Amino acid sequence: MPEYWVSDINKAEEGVAQLEWAERNMPVLMSLRKKYSDEKPLRGAKIAACLHVTKETGVLVRTLKAWGAEVYLAASNPLSTQDDIAAALATEGVCVFAKKGESEKEYFWAIEKVASIHPDIVIDDGADLHSLLHEKHPEMLNKIKGGAEETTTGVVRLRALEKEKKLGYPVFAVNDAMTKQMFDNRYGTGQSTIDGLLRATNILISGKTIVVAGYGWVGRGIAARARGMGAEVIITEVDPVKALEAVMDGYRVMKMEEAAKIGDVFITATGDKDVITWKHMEKMKDGAILANSGHFNVEVSVKDLEENSISSRELRRYMKEYKMKNGKVLYLLAEGRLLNLVAAEGHPSEVMDMSFANQALIAKKVWTEPRLEPKVYKVPLDIDQNIAMLKLKSMGIEIDELTPEQKEYLDSWKLD
Questions:
Q1: Which one, of 221, 178, 121, 225, lies nearest residue 355 by Cα?
Q2: Record-annotated residues binding NAD(+) (predicted)?
C-alpha cells in the first residue's frame, strides 16, 4: 500500500463505484487511456498533482497511472475533496493526501507532502503547488521537466512569475485551451454553480435578481444558467469590453455598489479579491445570499462579514447566517469558497472529459519531448482540435472537411 492520508479508507468501495460512473461519461479520456496504455508514454515519470479530488480527477489519475506514471495527489481546496474518491485512489496505489474539511495547516502540509517527492511533472489547479515549489524548493525547479495549470487564477499567478523572470520550468496553460475554457469554464461552472446554490439553499431561482460579478467564461456560464431558470441577471465588471458584451447579450450592467441595493443573490467569478466588501454589504437587502465561484475564498470578504455582525450560526449545511449590526441578516454559502465544489460535486464528467484529456496529453508531451524554455505556453492547436474531434465522435457527430481546393483558396492571397 502507498502512503496516504484520507478521511476514511473504508469508503473506497463507494469511491470505486463513483469512478466507474465518471468513466462511463468521459469517453475522450477513456479512449486516450486505451490508445496509449500499451505504450506507457509516462513510464518513469513522477507526477505531483494538486487538484480537486473528485471522481473526474480520479479518472485522470487512473489514466496517468495506466500510462506508467507514479502519481502523488493533494487537494487544491480544503473543502472540495470527495472522501470516497480519495479512499479509492489510495487503495489503487496513489499517494493521496486529501480530506474534506482540511484546516489551512493541513491543506498546505498535504501540498508540501506532494512537493517533497522531487517531481518530474507538476499538474496544478490554482497554482498553490507551483507557488510552493518556487518559494520553498527552488533547488527542485531545474529537475522538473514541465507542468500544467488548470484554472484562470493559477495561470494569472504563473504569468506573474514569468513576467518577473522567476518561472523555473515550462508550464502549459491548460485553462486557456479552447476545449477547456469554452466548455469547462462556461457550461461546467454555469451548471455546477447553480447546482451548489440549490443544494445549499433550495431557493426558487425564478423571479430572483442574481448579481454575477465578472463576465469571463465562468461568469457567462453562470449568468446564462440563472437567466434560463427565470432569474433577472445583473452583471458587474471592470473590463469595458466584457461589460459591453454583457450588455449586448441582454443583461443589465452596473457598478456593484448599485447592484448591491437590488440583488437577492450575489455570485462572484472574477479571480480577484475584495469584490464584495462591507461598503456593498451594508447596502444589501435583508436576507441577501452571498456566494463565490472563483478559485480562492477572497472574493467575498468574510472578514467584513464577521467584523460587522453581532452573531452567526450554521443555519443549513454550507450556509452561514450573519446577523449584522445594522439589523439585517446576510447569508454566506460554502464559507466563501468554491460553491460548486463545496456544496455540490463540481463540474459534470462530460465537460471534465475534455479538460482532463488536455491535462493527460500535455503530461505526455512534457515527458516525451525535449524540455522547453521556462515560459507559460499555450496548449498546441492540434491537441485542442484532436480532443474536440474525439468528443464529437463520442457523440456520434460527423463534420465536413476542407477539400484540397478549399485549403488552397484559404491559403492564397490572390484575387482569383
A1: 178
A2: 151-153, 185, 214-221, 237, 293-295, 340, 347
Q: Is 270 annotated as a binding residue?
A: no
What single-letter DSSP state applies at residue 174? G
Say how far residue 58 (Cα) sits from the centre of its chain: 15
Strands 319-324 and 309-316: antiparallel
Q: Are strands 171-173 and 209-213 parallel, antiparallel or unpaired?
A: unpaired
Tell whether 137 is in a known binding site: no
- What pLDDT, on a 0 to 100 scale, did the predictor assign at position 415? 78
Cut 0.85: pTM above it: yes
Phi, psi angles (nearest 5°) of residue 74: -125, 160
Domains parsed from the chain with CATH numbers: 5-180+347-394 (3.40.50.1480), 188-342 (3.40.50.720)
Three-state DSSP state, 86 = helix
CB-count exposure of residue 47 (10 Å: 0-12, 13-18, 19+): buried
The continuous run of DSSP H or E covering 14 comes out as helix 12-24
Asked whether residue 347 is marked as a ligand-binding residue, the answer is yes
Q: Can you tell me the distance from the alpha carbon of 416 to that of 412, in angstroms, rounded to the nearest whole number?
A: 9
Q: Is 295 annotated as a binding residue?
A: yes
Ranges of H-type helices in 284-338: 302-307
Is residue 207 a known part of a binding site?
Answer: no
- Asked whether residue 251 is marked as a ligand-binding residue, the answer is no
In angstroms, rounded to a whole number, what is the distance separating the alpha carbons of residues 160 and 156? 6
Angle ∠(301,307,309) on CA atoms, nearest 5: 105
Q: How do residues 350-370 score in pLDDT, each as one tens digit?
A: 999 999 999 999 999 999 999
268 assigned ligand-binding residue: no
- Give the integer Cα–Cα distance in Å for 329 and 311: 10
Residue 152, marked binder: yes
326 is in an annotated binding site: no
Q: Residue 242 corresponds to which cell in the numbers above?
A: 466584457
